[in-house]
């Protein structure tokens, strides 16, 4: 958890950059949806093309031990925007809105003069007091639900409990852009926001819905991958459209000569999914790849929430770095606050730390341990050790959504030596297993406090 002293010490890089530029930095957060951690070029994908994301990585720092706050959409986003474990932030799973009492990144930045905008998927509430414009965003163009049709912008997955509905909004007004591909719409709106606020400072949160189902892609993107099988081809095309969207925003920064004064993040909300909705024939999806990691979206094994992270800030973050220190989406709020010279919320627990020193000074991670909870699963990582209790793999097999049993119900791995969490070391290292079990039990109590 972030103390006031640690925050003050961690602002050095951000304040130095402000001194050089004479103003607070702009901030952009790009977020992909259900992206496989190894499904971008700079992470090793050979059959996909992501030149703009790759350029971000080459111009900044690539974090290879970064984790989402949860292995599923809404809790992951709640952790990112508040710097707090999703349970503590009131969003332990998909469904609850982010409570109105929670303080978000844009709400922290607005008093410092930032213009704030969200372009894409919100998934944290649609009521008068939980929609984006009530949570610190001056401008909102996107949708409230967990997913929608890329062309009609309708939500089709609630029946029989919820009738399908249209879900595209500009601020609090419903708008219709029938037939327009949503990935392109969100990128165009984000680029326009940058132009409109070129005088800065601004905060742009760009949570694309790609490559989340439904699996939709225009022909021009599909044609880039003529030799891939249909499922992987559509998935690759959706990621290519996302990459083009990032490229549009980054070109806008360059044209306006804003690059050097803009801190940019790129990451994903969780790992790739095997949900049948994400396949073209209603069988478990196979398009997304989580590399060597075990499990998929929803899983407390690393495949569920080990995600790519890139940070770029020319002149502050040295380009071409690969950083192996442990980081978390919980760190994004403290990092942005430090860069902007804004104090984090002082009236509540913040579970993340400023990650800038990892990229600017070769610092070590301040995380003694990182925890997760989802669908009855509990997990903790401390250094090289990872313990998963009642883990599920969600790998598309008949038993993938059932907890492991027997000895494997408590699964201890050395993820530096065994990133696939294949070998259970609980009996070889019983003391470590006991320590981490105790830590999980204590965290389960502590995390319910403010």
Structure overview:
The longest helix is centred in the middle third of the chain and has 26 residues, at 230-255. The protein is 27% helix and 18% strand. It is globular. It is an alpha/beta fold and 450 residues long. The N and C termini lie close together (12 Å).
Topology:
Blueprint: H1 4-10, H2 12-21, E1 26-32, H3 51-58, E2 61-67, H4 73-82, H5 105-109, E3 115-121, E4 139-143, E5 154-155, E6 165-166, E7 169-170, E8 173-174, H6 182-196, E9 202-207, H7 219-222, H8 230-255, E10 262-268, H9 302-305, E11 306-312, E12 321-323, E13 327-328, H10 332-340, H11 356-360, E14 370-374, E15 377-382, E16 385-389, E17 410-414, H12 430-446
Parallel strand pairs: 1-9, 1-10, 2-12, 2-13, 3-4, 3-9
Antiparallel strand pairs: 2-11, 4-7, 5-6, 7-8, 10-11, 14-15, 15-16, 16-17
Helix pairs in contact: 6-8
């Amino acid at each position: 958890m972030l103390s006031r002293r640690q925050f003050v010490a961690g602002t050095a890089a951000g304040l130095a950059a402000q001194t050089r530029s004479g103003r607070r930095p702009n901030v952009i957060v790009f977020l992909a949806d259900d992206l496989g951690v190894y499904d971008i070029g700079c992470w090793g994908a050979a059959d996909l093309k992501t030149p703009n994301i790759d350029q971000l990585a080459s111009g900044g720092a690539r974090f290879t031990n970064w984790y989402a706050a949860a292995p599923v959409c809404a809790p992951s986003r709640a952790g990112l925007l508040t710097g707090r474990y999703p349970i503590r932030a009131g969003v332990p799973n998909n469904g609850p809105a982010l409570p109105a009492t929670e303080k978000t990144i844009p709400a922290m930045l607005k008093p410092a003069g930032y213009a704030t905008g969200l372009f894409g998927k919100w998934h944290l509430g649609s009521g008068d007091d939980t929609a984006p414009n009530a949570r610190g965003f001056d401008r909102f163009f996107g949708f409230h639900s967990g997913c929608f049709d890329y062309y009609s912008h309708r939500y089709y997955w609630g029946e029989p409990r919820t009738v399908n509905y249209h879900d595209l909004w500009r601020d609090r007004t419903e708008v219709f852009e029938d037939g327009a591909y949503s990935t392109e719409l969100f990128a165009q709106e984000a680029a326009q926001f940058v132009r409109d606020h070129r005088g800065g400072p601004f905060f742009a949160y760009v949570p694309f819905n790609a490559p989340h189902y439904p699996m939709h892609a225009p022909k021009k993107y599909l044609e880039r991958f003529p030799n891939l099988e249909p499922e992987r081809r559509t998935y690759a095309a959706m990621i290519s459209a996302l990459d083009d969207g990032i490229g549009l925003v980054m070109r806008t920064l360059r044209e306006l000569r804003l690059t050097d004064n803009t801190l940019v993040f790129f990451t994903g909300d969780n790992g790739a999914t095997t949900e049948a909705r994400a396949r073209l024939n209603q069988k478990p999806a196979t398009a997304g790849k989580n590399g060597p990691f075990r499990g998929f979206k929803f899983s407390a094994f690393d495949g569920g929430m080990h995600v790519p992270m890139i940070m770029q800030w020319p002149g502050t973050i040295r380009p071409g770095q690969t950083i192996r220190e442990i980081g978390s989406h919980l760190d994004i709020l403290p990092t942005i606050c430090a860069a902007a010279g804004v104090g984090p919320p002082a009236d509540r627990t913040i579970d993340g730390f400023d990650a800038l020193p990892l990229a600017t000074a070769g610092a070590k991670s301040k995380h003694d341990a990182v925890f997760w909870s989802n669908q009855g699963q509990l997990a903790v990582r401390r250094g090289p050790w990872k313990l998963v209790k009642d883990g599920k793999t969600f790998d598309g097999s008949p038993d993938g959504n059932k907890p492991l049993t027997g000895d494997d119900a408590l699964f201890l791995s050395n993820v530096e030596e065994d990133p696939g969490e294949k070998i259970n070391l609980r009996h070889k290292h019983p003391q470590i297993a006991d320590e981490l079990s105790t830590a999980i039990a204590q965290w389960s109590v502590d995390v319910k406090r403010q």
